[in-house]
Specification:
By secondary structure, the protein is α/β, with parallel strands linked by helices. It folds into two domains: 191 residues, Rossmann fold; 127 residues, TPP-binding domain (Rossmann fold, 3-Layer(aba) Sandwich). The protein contains eight helices and 17 strands. The protein has a seven-stranded parallel beta sheet with strand order 7-11-6-1-4-5-12, with helices on both faces. Helix 5 packs parallel to helix 8. The longest helix has 20 residues. The radius of gyration is 22 Å and the shape is elongated. The termini are far apart.
């Protein structure tokens, strides 16, 4: 395996913010650009540079996109052994380059691959890792990264710091931040790293790949999401939310409680243990607003909430609050939209 080298114990030697650009078959994951956008905000407060790093068989073409979203440098590790993701070679290669260049902050998307890779790299580097963060800020006094995530089943928000070890590492779920290109992107520097790693040195082998998207849906692709919670009462009542979503050109989803009750599949769950979204319009029907749900949708541009409990926490983050039984209100809204549609087409 790769000799990753010895970690520098002096944290004052660490600087800059790095983002891991995950890719599959040469296609970068959108969450990587979301993190580069956030890194720009953090870098302004630390007065430092931003670097992106990617590993794969062929990844140099991703550099232009990385520069577009704010990277000043793009480190690439290309080799045939990185054609497919395997924990050990990716771990060793990434750990070696992090030890070599000593970034102060290292961000990774909380994807299936990112969650696996981040934990092993943090262990290798003997540093802390905060998983599934929803907010990141720089402490103005210490310069430490303050990483906030839901805890205790989503009932509390915890802010975690890693004051003694570097790099400060955290994973962020797709959709938490928005990917915003720079107004005036500049050409960055591409730095090619090499690894001394042969296929025969890798114990794990990929014998067969089975790719299936059955039942999967990426809610972040939609500008309009109509979501329901426990207050919808039954799986059958979610049909009206599907109809409303169709009329508005969007899709439907549910809260964790709705999933637990069997009203909606887990693939359509919004929240800490589901997907994080920020559509232009989010309509919450019969959702009380537990923290674990709010962290998954509170960045939506417009939030309309329908709940018969006027004290429902969901109203605290809503643009428009409708105190009404969703089961009575939604059918009326659907009829009104259909009527308006008829008038416009006449």
């Amino acid at each position: 395996m790769i000799d990753i080298g010895k970690k520098d114990p002096d944290k004052t030697h660490y600087k800059d913010i790095w983002v891991f650009v995950e890719q599959t078959n040469g296609e970068p994951q959108q969450v990587s650009f979301e993190l580069l956008t956030k890194a720009r905000e953090l870098a302004e407060k630390l007065n430092c540079k931003i670097a992106a790093v990617s590993i794969g068989k062929s990844v140099e073409h991703i550099a232009e996109e990385a520069f577009k979203y704010g990277a000043d440098k793009f480190y690439i590790l290309e080799d045939e052994v990185f054609s497919d993701y395997r924990t050990e070679p990716f771990r060793d290669a990434l750990s070696r380059i992090l030890i070599k260049y000593k970034p102060e902050i290292f961000l990774i998307g909380a994807t299936t691959q990112g969650r696996d890779l981040s934990g092993t790299v943090a262990t290798e580097l003997k540093t802390g890792l905060t998983a599934d963060t929803t907010q990141q800020e720089i402490d103005s006094e210490t310069g430490n990264l303050m990483m906030t995530r839901p805890t205790f089943g989503g009932s509390l928000m915890a802010t975690i710091i890693c004051p003694d070890d570097r790099p400060q590492m955290s994973t962020v779920r797709p959709g938490v931040f928005k990917a915003i290109p720079k107004e005036t992107p500049q050409k960055g520097e591409v730095i090619r790293e090499t690894v001394d790693l042969k296929e025969e040195d890798i114990v794990k082998k990929i014998l067969k790949k089975v790719v299936s998207n059955e039942g999967n849906i990426n809610l972040s692709f939609y500008d309009v999401i109509v979501a329901g919670g426990k207050g919808m009462g039954s799986k059958e009542n979610f049909k009206m939310l599907e109809n409303l979503a169709d009329l508005l050109g969007g899709t439907w989803a549910g809260s964790r409680k709705a999933v637990e009750l069997g009203y909606v599949p887990q693939s359509r769950q919004v929240g800490q243990t589901g997907q994080t979204v920020h559509p232009k319009l989010y309509i919450a029907c019969g959702i009380s607003g537990a923290i674990q749900h709010l962290v998954g949708m509170q960045s939506s541009d417009i939030i309309i909430s329908v709940n018969k409990d006027e004290n429902a926490p969901i109203f605290d983050v809503s643009t428009y609050c409708i105190v009404e039984d969703a089961l009575k209100f939604i059918p009326k809204l659907i009829d009104e939209l259909k009527q308006n549609k008829k008038i416009k087409t006449q």
